């Protein structure tokens, strides 16, 4: 242990502890901006400076370990003055147009400037603006970048894609796409993790809310909205709604209040995905000629994009089942359009996703399968959904809970857990077991696949054989797994990959709580919903049974093949 004094308080902490953590352990919070635990501890912003007795130069708290006998002051007059100057210098290169910034009210720089009482900037403003392709789902606003390096480090260390790098020198230093590429030429998976780890508004999703308002205002357009599993675990955070009030029923009520004609649930098509993907797995297992092992899940578009760009020779391992978002769109513009006697071209299909890459997925060539234009016309993130609610001046706490509409609103517990790492695997195993054994197992039989450690293996016995599974989240973990598969050091039958750490609950389109990882808080919310559902097996969903009986035929059948599977 090391004993030191911080702000006149004597404390003991384990050797190697940083000053920042030592102070936090006794409730002394040292302000910081660029720091991201375990990812970015490089003191780029110099906001966390503290004074050490006997030293003239201030030291940074985020990356300096404690030393025996140190005497530190975290808020002395000298510290306050230097910290203030450092923030003023950052502001002199920052486009502080807070009124029109998506991060206003949720920006660490804004809060810090306010906390320090900065109302004038004594330096000349020198802001670097650069062109960007604003039709791309991921937007960079150079004028707001504070060069904190979090996006660079997160993409390097967690996603292993190295999309960002520092460019130029001196006051023109900025962060841009590496190797002089444009973002659309890069291998960016569009996972959006650099957005959720940006402390300011320098990174954001393309805002598509105006398109939704246009569709809602058009009396000729039938608006059909679907909400992804993980959105319900997080939407309240962006609206200051406590978790116990942020229920599925209140979320559906908010969507109805906004004015969507039909409020449906992506959980419905998650159940449908299981019917197709589970049967595809069983068909591959039954085929002695099948070589494409392991089978990979295909529902995370950032993972699919990653695999196709990094390991194109393994793309045929992907399940051909479309993601629930896309299956929903295809069903909305075919089966449902027929049911309500509408021209699919008159339906505007909108999805609310915890994800940025879903905006890209909806535009892929395979996703125009129902004859009414794109199967999903507009994709909003959870954050954009919150903006929609605010723009409509809705106070969600005052809403009475409402049910999703029928028939594309019915779902099971298996559909809900899609939004958390391991959930697709678990849901698929529940149905695969039923298909092989003819009876449902206890619903939690496959809970070994759960866990937030980034890579998790399990083995189950199914129809007299052993099924080896692996669940991965985060793209660096995915790359390591693929390298191990290629080296022949591991062997699996079925692998689930989600690009975002923790799965969609930690998605790049989710509400941002600066510096806090929320996946392991939101994940259990979905497991709880699963537990509370009367039906917990996708094949028991009455809406799904009806869809096959009335329209789709059998899983993997001709119609299913045309609408629910990819062909490229
Ligand atoms: Fe997901 Fe999905 S689980 S990818 O994370 O499969 O985005 O929530 O909507 O499509 O269902 C995201 C979440 C989805 C899809 C589902 C899958
Ligand atoms: Fe990297 Fe994901 Fe950001 Fe693309 S979206 S730059 S892959 S972190």
UniProtKB/TrEMBL annotation:
<dbReference type="GO" id="GO:0051537">
    <property type="term" value="F:2 iron, 2 sulfur cluster binding"/>
</dbReference>
<dbReference type="InterPro" id="IPR003149">
    <property type="entry name" value="Fe_hydrogenase_ssu"/>
</dbReference>
<protein>
    <submittedName>
        <fullName>4Fe-4S dicluster domain-containing protein</fullName>
    </submittedName>
</protein>
<keyword id="KW-0677">Repeat</keyword>
<dbReference type="GO" id="GO:0008901">
    <property type="term" value="F:ferredoxin hydrogenase activity"/>
</dbReference>
<keyword id="KW-0001">2Fe-2S</keyword>
<dbReference type="InterPro" id="IPR013352">
    <property type="entry name" value="Fe_hydrogenase_subset"/>
</dbReference>
<dbReference type="Pfam" id="PF02906">
    <property type="entry name" value="Fe_hyd_lg_C"/>
</dbReference>
<dbReference type="InterPro" id="IPR019574">
    <property type="entry name" value="NADH_UbQ_OxRdtase_Gsu_4Fe4S-bd"/>
</dbReference>
<comment type="similarity">
    <text>Belongs to the complex I 75 kDa subunit family.</text>
</comment>
<dbReference type="Pfam" id="PF13510">
    <property type="entry name" value="Fer2_4"/>
</dbReference>
<dbReference type="InterPro" id="IPR001041">
    <property type="entry name" value="2Fe-2S_ferredoxin-type"/>
</dbReference>
<feature type="domain" description="4Fe-4S His(Cys)3-ligated-type">
    <location>
        <begin position="78"/>
        <end position="117"/>
    </location>
</feature>
<keyword id="KW-0408">Iron</keyword>
<keyword id="KW-1278">Translocase</keyword>
<dbReference type="InterPro" id="IPR049830">
    <property type="entry name" value="HndD"/>
</dbReference>
<dbReference type="InterPro" id="IPR036010">
    <property type="entry name" value="2Fe-2S_ferredoxin-like_sf"/>
</dbReference>
<dbReference type="Pfam" id="PF12838">
    <property type="entry name" value="Fer4_7"/>
</dbReference>
<feature type="domain" description="4Fe-4S ferredoxin-type">
    <location>
        <begin position="136"/>
        <end position="166"/>
    </location>
</feature>
<dbReference type="Pfam" id="PF02256">
    <property type="entry name" value="Fe_hyd_SSU"/>
</dbReference>
<dbReference type="Pfam" id="PF10588">
    <property type="entry name" value="NADH-G_4Fe-4S_3"/>
</dbReference>
<keyword id="KW-0479">Metal-binding</keyword>
<feature type="domain" description="2Fe-2S ferredoxin-type">
    <location>
        <begin position="1"/>
        <end position="78"/>
    </location>
</feature>
<dbReference type="InterPro" id="IPR017900">
    <property type="entry name" value="4Fe4S_Fe_S_CS"/>
</dbReference>
<dbReference type="InterPro" id="IPR050340">
    <property type="entry name" value="Cytosolic_Fe-S_CAF"/>
</dbReference>
<keyword id="KW-0520">NAD</keyword>
<keyword id="KW-0472">Membrane</keyword>
<feature type="domain" description="4Fe-4S ferredoxin-type">
    <location>
        <begin position="179"/>
        <end position="208"/>
    </location>
</feature>
<keyword id="KW-0004">4Fe-4S</keyword>
<dbReference type="InterPro" id="IPR004108">
    <property type="entry name" value="Fe_hydrogenase_lsu_C"/>
</dbReference>
<dbReference type="GO" id="GO:0005506">
    <property type="term" value="F:iron ion binding"/>
</dbReference>
<keyword id="KW-0411">Iron-sulfur</keyword>
<dbReference type="GO" id="GO:0016020">
    <property type="term" value="C:membrane"/>
</dbReference>
<dbReference type="InterPro" id="IPR009016">
    <property type="entry name" value="Fe_hydrogenase"/>
</dbReference>
<dbReference type="InterPro" id="IPR036991">
    <property type="entry name" value="Fe_hydrogenase_ssu_sf"/>
</dbReference>
<dbReference type="GO" id="GO:0051539">
    <property type="term" value="F:4 iron, 4 sulfur cluster binding"/>
</dbReference>
<dbReference type="InterPro" id="IPR017896">
    <property type="entry name" value="4Fe4S_Fe-S-bd"/>
</dbReference>
């Amino acid at each position: 242990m090391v004993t030191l004094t911080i702000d006149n308080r004597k404390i003991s902490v384990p050797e190697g502890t940083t000053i920042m953590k030592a102070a936090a352990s006794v409730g002394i919070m040292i302000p910081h901006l660029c720091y991201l635990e375990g990812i970015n501890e490089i003191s780029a912003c110099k906001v966390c400076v503290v004074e050490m007795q006997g030293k003239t130069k201030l030291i940074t708290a985020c990356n300096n370990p404690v030393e025996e006998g140190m005497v530190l002051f975290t808020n002395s007059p000298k510290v306050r003055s230097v910290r203030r100057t450092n923030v003023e210098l950052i502001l002199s290169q920052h486009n502080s147009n807070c009124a029109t910034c998506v991060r206003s009210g949720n920006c660490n720089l804004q809060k810090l400037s306010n906390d320090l009482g900065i109302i004038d900037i004594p330096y000349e403003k020198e802001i670097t603006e650069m062109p960007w392709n604003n039709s791309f789902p991921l937007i960079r606003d150079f004028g707001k970048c504070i060069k904190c390096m979090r996006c660079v480090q997160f993409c390097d260390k967690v996603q292993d894609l190295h999309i960002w790098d520092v460019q130029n020198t001196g006051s023109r230093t900025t962060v841009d796409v590496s190797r002089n590429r444009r973002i659309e030429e890069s291998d960016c998976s569009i996972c959006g993790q650099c957005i959720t780890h940006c402390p300011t508004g320098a990174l954001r999703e393309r805002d598509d809310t105006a398109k939704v308002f246009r569709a809602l205002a058009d009396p000729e357009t039938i608006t059909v909205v679907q909400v992804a599993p993980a959105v319900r675990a997080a939407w309240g955070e962006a609206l200051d709604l406590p978790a116990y009030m942020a229920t599925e029923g209140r979320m559906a009520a908010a969507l109805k209040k906004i004015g969507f004609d039909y409020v449906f649930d992506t959980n419905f098509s998650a159940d449908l995905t299981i019917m197709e993907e589970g049967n595809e797995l069983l068909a591959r297992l039954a085929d002695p000629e099948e070589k494409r092992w392991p089978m990979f899940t295909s529902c995370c578009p950032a993972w699919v994009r990653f695999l196709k760009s990094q390991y194109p020779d393994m793309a045929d391992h992907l399940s051909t089942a479309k993601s629930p978002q896309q299956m929903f769109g295809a069903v909305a513009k075919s089966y449902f359009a027929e049911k309500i006697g509408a021209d699919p071209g008159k339906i505007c299909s909108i999805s609310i996703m915890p994800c940025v890459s879903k905006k890209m997925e909806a535009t892929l060539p395979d996703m125009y399968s129902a004859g009414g234009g794109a199967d999903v016309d507009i994709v909003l993130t959870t954050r954009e959904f919150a903006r929609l609610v605010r723009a409509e001046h809705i106070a969600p706490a005052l809403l009475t809970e409402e049910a999703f509409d029928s028939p594309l609103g019915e779902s099971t517990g298996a559909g809900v857990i899609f939004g958390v790492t391991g959930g697709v695997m678990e849901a698929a195993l529940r149905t695969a077991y039923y298909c092989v054994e003819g009876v449902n197992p206890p619903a939690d039989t496959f809970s070994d696949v759960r866990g937030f450690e980034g890579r998790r293996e399990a083995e189950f016995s199914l129809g007299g054989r052993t099924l080896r599974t692996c669940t991965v989240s985060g793209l660096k973990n995915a790359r390591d797994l693929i390298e191990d598969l290629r080296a022949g050091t591991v062997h699996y039958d079925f692998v689930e990959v989600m690009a975002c750490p923790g799965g969609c609950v930690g998605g790049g389109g989710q509400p941002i709580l600066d510096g806090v990882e929320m996946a392991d808080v939101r994940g259990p919310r979905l497991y709880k919903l699963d537990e509370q559902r009367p039906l917990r097996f996708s094949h028991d969903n009455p809406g799904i049974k009806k869809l096959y009986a009335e329209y789709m035929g059998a899983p993997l059948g001709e119609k299913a093949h045309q609408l629910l599977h990819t062909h490229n």
